[in-house]
Each structure stands twice: as structure tokens, then as C-alpha cells.
Amino acid sequence: MRWGLVLIGGALAAAVAVADAQSEPTPVARGRAALLGKNYNPAVWSRDAYDNAWKRWEGVTTKPEDYDRAFRDTYGLHPAPYPNNGLPMGLREGWRIVKRGLSIDCLVCHGGSIFGQSYVGLGNASLDIQALFEDLARADGSPYKTPFVFSNVRGTSEAGGMSVFLLGYRNPDLTLRSSRLDLELHDDLCEDPPALWLLHKKKTMYHTGGADSRSVRSIMQFMMGPFNGPDAFARAETDFADILEFFKSLRPPRYPLPIDAARAVEGERIFRTHCARCHGTYGDQPSYPNKIVALDDIGTDRRRFDGISARFADYYDRSWFAQPERDGQGPAYRSIATDGYQAPPLDGVWATAPYLHNGSVPTVWHVLNSPARPKQFTRSYRTDEADYDPVRLGWKFTASGPADPKLPARERRKVYDTMLPGRANTGHTYGDDLTEEERMAVIEYLKTL
Fold it and tell me: Confidence band (pLDDT; 50, 70, 90) for 98?
């Protein structure tokens, strides 16, 4: 009898252990909870700055009734599809000395919307991050001139320049410097934020493939604001290992409109002949070559490639970011020198307009028909179905001339001028030899990805 009780007790203990193991959150679940529930940057603005930003809007004399929507529309932000204290994706409540305040997180650029629906991991093609920073600072009565240009055209940002700027204020161990190192900052790179759901296929990340996609520390660069010391990075590294797993678990939304199945089948045949060698194959047995296309071959604007210098890469490789991860027990991921831009996977490509690394091409049809690309254009920067072009696959736009220099800067940023530095819409001419019927078949196939 005694042995029977021992066996029963052992079985119960084993069952409890199995149940506990099964209930333990996975890295993906932990990463999602950390990304959406924690704040990794101390607040830089007061909470009142959000409520008073409207006072900086030209021609607005009273606070709009539906203020949250007006705020989102003004700066190109989107409703948070998770609890966020009434704030849009990308803004986050946090501590500002002893009071609650406001900061940003990575979803300000990587939380987007399509057909009016918000998605974590979709690049934010509507954002005016320059106006957001300026207006929140002014609403707080602080200096509002940013130390360099955060955005030259709405929907893009100078994310690479931000990394160069912030690392210049750090010693290799991430302690703060009193003066900034010259790491060759450029703020005319005009970067379109890629979809995070592509990371699960990629061996390298960023437009040039300049970092290993397994690197946890590389995605922590946005934490380099002046109020985070080295200990903040050490504490957050485990969270970001989980956040990276969450990013890699993301998948794109399905195309929501009818698809011509027969035309899509023909489009897949053409795609496999003309496009798959760089962008991979899809379906039951997908493949992705992780191909970096040399600048001389791709022919797209080289400013982003040249704008992150060898001097920055060398200093990055000396810093904490490129040292063994996981408290020194894991691998080290140094920067990667390449000769061009990475051809991305095309999962969910229908949702990721505009195109090319600098957002200079409004639709897939224009990607495949380079002579037809507009030199200057503007769009609504809204994301409803009415703003989407389901035929050419991308954003509806209006061709325009250069922006009037007399307009306020935020109005000039609404005009994409491909004649200005960093914004050329040249290159990727691989679709030019297709017939119009072939081009439309490829577009129909891309809707299925």
C-alpha cells in the first residue's frame, strides 16, 4: 500500500510538472507581452503634450471633437489593436522623472494600417515623425528643432541616421560621452520601413542586409536615448530575445478582395521565370535565396547604401551591440559589409506600398513599369479601402509638380519628389520587358502571397 501511494504521488507530481511546463509562456508569447506591455524608453514628453498638440496645428482654433482620430490623422498614426491607455500605436506611457509621461516605441514606424485595419509589424507608410516630435516638444514648451532631420518626406524616416547620431554619444560600453563622435551622419537616406513579418525568412536584415537577422542587440539600438544607461540594455536583452521571436512569428494579412484565380496561375508561371531567382518561391515548398543585389545591377538610389559609413560600422563592431550576446554567453553578431540592397521576400507585398527601399514608387504596377513612374506625387496618407488601388496594387496618388517652397514644411513633406537626394525612383527595371497582360498577371499572383 505504501508503495502504491508513492507511485500515485509520483504520477501526480509528474502530471503537475507537465501541466506547469505546458502553461509556461512561450518565447513568442513573452515577446508579444513585452513589446506591447512594457516601455523601454523613459518618457520624453509630458502626458499633457498629447492633449495640447492641436494648439500647434495651423488654422485650428478649438480642440477637435474626435481628438484621438484627429491626432492620428495629423501625424499618420493608427489605433492600437491592444490595450494602450487610449494612445495610438507607437506612443507609450512611461515615467518622466516622478510623473507619467509619453515616449515612443518601435511601432511608431513598424505599426501600420491597411484597409483601415491596424497591424503590428506592418511598416507605417503614413507617418510624419518630424511633425510629431516638433509638435509634442512645442506643446511642452521645449525647444522643438530636432538635432537633425528625422523625415524628409512623409511615410519615410531617417532611421539609419538616428542610429548613427545616437551611437555617437556612446562609448563602446554604452556609457554616455560628453561630446558626440563624428560617425558620418547623413539625414537624407529616406527609408521606407519594411514589414517585420519578413524576418522569419531572412538571414540578414535592414535594406542592405547589413546585420544578421539572429542579432538581438541590433534591434535594441532605438534604446540609445540619453536616459538609458548600460544597465537598461543589460536588463532588456532577455526581453528582446523574446521580442525577436515574436517578430519572426508574424505573418501578413491576406488580400481582402476577390482574386482572379486563372490569371494568378499564369502570373505565378511568369513570376517563377522572371522574379523568383531574387525574391524566392511561395506555396507548399517555399524558398528564399536571401540575395543581395549589387548596386550596379539593381540601379536604385544608392544614398541609403552610402549613408551608413564604414566609420560607423567599425565603431558599431567595437561596441556592446557586436559583443557576445546573452550576458556574454551567446554569439556575437558584427555588421555585415555588402555590395547592394537585399531583395526582400514578397509575403504580403500587396499591403506594403509604397515600394523600393526609399518608398519612391507608389504601386507594384509602377515597380514593373519603370518609365511610367511619377516624378513627383502626393497621396492622402489615409489607409482606408478608398485610398487603395486594387488594380495596380498600392496607394492611389496624384501626380504633382515640385512642392511649393512657400508651403509649411509639413505640407512640403507630403509631396514625394524623386528628383531630390535619396529619393530617386530609378532602377529595378526587370518588369519593363513584360507585356501589359503579363504584368497584370504577375500582380494578380502577388495578391495571393
Answer: confident
DSSP letter (8 states) at residue 94: E
- Cα separation, 57 vs 405, in Å, equals 19
Using an 8 Å Cβ cutoff, are 58 and 74 in contact?
no
Q: Is 434 left (phi over 0), alpha (psi -120 to 50) or beta?
A: beta
pLDDT digits (tens, 9 = 90+) for 142-157: 888 999 999 999 999 9
Q: Please tell me the number of Cα atoms within 13 Å of 445 on its side-chain side.
A: 22
Identity of the amino acid at 265: V
- 404 Cβ contact partners less than 8 Å away, ≥ 6 residues apart: 412
Residue pair 207/194 in contact (Cβ under 8 Å)? The answer is: yes
CA 260 vs. chain centroid, Å, equals 31
Cβ count near 259 (within 10 Å):
14
Interstrand relation of 416-417 and 376-378 (parallel, antiparallel or unpaired)? antiparallel
Nearest alpha carbon to residue 326 among 400, 234, 189: 234
Those residues whose C-beta lies under 8 Å from the C-beta of residue 33, and which sit 6 or more positions away, are: 25
Pick from 131, 120, 134: nearest CA to 154? 131
**What would the pLDDT profile of 186-216 be if each residue is shown by its tens digit?**
999 999 999 999 999 999 999 999 999 999 9
Segment (H or E) for 294 = strand 292-294
